Amino acid sequence: MEKTSGLISGKEIYQAELKNVKEHKDYRGSFSEIFQDHWNTCIEPVQWSLVKSKERVFRGMHLHKRHDEYFCLLTGHCLLALKDIRPGSPTEGVYSLYELFEEDLAALSFPKGLLHGWYFHTPSIHVQAVSEAYIDYGKDDNHGVIWNAPDLGIPWPMDEVILSERAQDFPTESELKASLGDWQPFE
């Protein structure tokens, strides 16, 4: 069965974009451009990170009010979810659930204000970029929601995950929204 990366549940979210990545193969291996400025994505990266995850690891659901992000799975198999909680967004309340495979390279860029998280079915490596360096955003813009909160509404197909200690204490979506106060991302 052919493995194809793409949206498997939910709807497309305003300003989030999945790009298919062309892999140029020859007898030596392959070459792939995983980011191009001319793609006109929402992100202007200032930090790139290489992230290794073990099987069943869940990273997220995070929310950043100040920076855009980019995700490209290099090896492995993962699910990546977005949920638009930006007040006034044309897709407010919509979620997207993507499945990504190393055999079908794809890169997802998405704007600030989207809840986002990824689950790794197998040991995996991904490249991640942000438009604000980690040293600058720290705790004041590193919010989260528990991955399986009933009000999140994302149909994750797994029951058990490995979480960071911090993510184990994340609130529900409604609790996070209440803590954000009068947040206007489109002003």
TrEMBL record:
Name listed for the protein in its UniProt record: dTDP-4-dehydrorhamnose 3,5-epimerase
Reported function: Catalyzes the epimerization of the C3' and C5'positions of dTDP-6-deoxy-D-xylo-4-hexulose, forming dTDP-6-deoxy-L-lyxo-4-hexulose.
Catalytic activity: dTDP-4-dehydro-6-deoxy-alpha-D-glucose = dTDP-4-dehydro-beta-L-rhamnose
Enzyme Commission (EC) number: 5.1.3.13
InterPro entries per the UniProt record, alphabetical: RmlC-like, RmlC-like_jellyroll, RmlC_Cupin_sf
Broadest EC class assigned to this enzyme: isomerase
SUPFAM superfamilies noted in UniProt: RmlC-like cupins (SSF51182)
